[in-house]
Amino acid sequence: MLALHYADSSISRIPHKFILENGFGAERAEFFIAKSSYIGPNSVCRFDNQDCKLNIGRYVSGAFGITFLPDGVHPVTTISSYIFEQFDGFPGSATHRKDHNRVIDVENDVWIGDQCFILGGATISNGCVLGARTLVPHNKQLEPYGIYVGSPARLIRFRFPEKVRELLVELAWWEMPLSWIRQNLSFFKLDLTLDEGHSIEICKELLKQKTIHLSANVGSSALESPKSEAVEISQLKVAEDELEILRINSILHPLILSAPRAIVYPADARSNWLMANTILSRINIIAFGDRNANKHGKYLFGVKVIPPSEIQKLEPDIVFITSELHGDEILGELSHIVDSSKVKLIALF
């Protein structure tokens, strides 16, 4: 879990490996999270191309295993749903498909339940609640303070009466400094569902307190700008890479002294990264394995790339599986190829 600490003591939290870049210029996609928000473990955001964006506002509570998928759209009105543009020699580009909004906006004071799935073009408005495993479809605009469940998401009720909702949206308390919220915390703990008239008075009193605060702080940054809290993907990746290096080294370090004969599988970009940044290069790597016949016979870090069928012949002590996207699939495949009583399969993903 990556924690972002702010001067006012607020914290935002992002799970490890939250951003998954899946080609088509995805490294130029945009991710923004405001302060005092968190997304739970095992949650991911998959960026498929440069047009993808995920914006998360303030005081967003994200539970376990949420999936944000800004793109992921395949054509269903043509002969094939396959995206041929990803191959060389095909005109156009998958990034040029303009029929889909690839921006997900999660506004403020939103609660997202376990294993929700949110697609591109969706707007989760202020104060919304998503029940566990809710699927928010493409371009779905959720109403402020609505409670949604199901697949596709459907509104089951609002958190508060209409007038109270309107006042809360006008109040926009999330724009205020944490110190102001602390001063007015007693109002935040009151039940706004018991008496509509009393709830309206509470909202009006908070609006009054907000006005007083803003008047007393004319010329200062009384209202905070969420955009000043932007977290760039490049910054996030640096922090995540540091955590990943520590994690991988903790797995590899006990193995160095035993000097095992090891094979790394597959010979991909992650294998390159691990060899260049971790102590994997200090292990006795006797070969790289890969299913891609175009790689067979070539060399990576001075070591030959071989097909899976030749792994057992080299009698390795360990096979390291490095693929993040297909790691579990490769583990299953290799378990049928190598003698598990003699060869240890270790996941580095």
SSE inventory with pairings:
Layout: E1 2-5, E2 11-14, E3 19-21, E4 30-33, E5 44-47, E6 53-56, E7 61-62, E8 67-69, E9 103-106, E10 111-112, E11 117-119, E12 123-124, E13 129-130, E14 135-136, E15 146-149, E16 154-158, H1 162-171, H2 178-183, H3 185-188, H4 196-216, H5 233-256, E17 261-265, H6 269-277, E18 284-289, E19 299-300, E20 303-306, E21 318-321, H7 327-335, E22 344-347
Parallel strand pairs: 3-5, 4-6, 5-8, 6-9, 7-10, 8-11, 9-12, 10-13, 11-14, 13-15, 17-18, 17-21, 18-20, 21-22
Antiparallel strand pairs: 1-2, 15-16, 19-20
Helix pairs in contact: 1-4
Describe the structure.
The protein has 3 domains: 1-159, UDP N-Acetylglucosamine Acyltransferase, domain 1 (3 Solenoid), CATH 2.160.10; 160-231, no CATH class; 241-347, NAD(P)-binding Rossmann-like Domain (Rossmann fold, 3-Layer(aba) Sandwich), CATH 3.40.50. Helix 1 (162-171) packs parallel to helix 4. It is of the alpha/beta class. The mean pLDDT is 86. The chain is built from 7 helices and 22 strands. The chain has helices spanning 162-171, 178-183, 185-188, 196-216, 233-256, 269-277, 327-335; strands at 2-5, 11-14, 19-21, 30-33, 44-47, 53-56, 61-62, 67-69, 103-106, 111-112, 117-119, 123-124, 129-130, 135-136, 146-149, 154-158, 261-265, 284-289, 299-300, 303-306, 318-321, 344-347. A 6-stranded mixed beta sheet has the order 19-20-18-17-21-22, with helices on one face. Strands 3-5-8-11-14 form a 5-stranded parallel beta sheet, with no helix packed on it. It has a 5-stranded mixed beta sheet with strand order 7-10-13-15-16, with no helix packed on it.
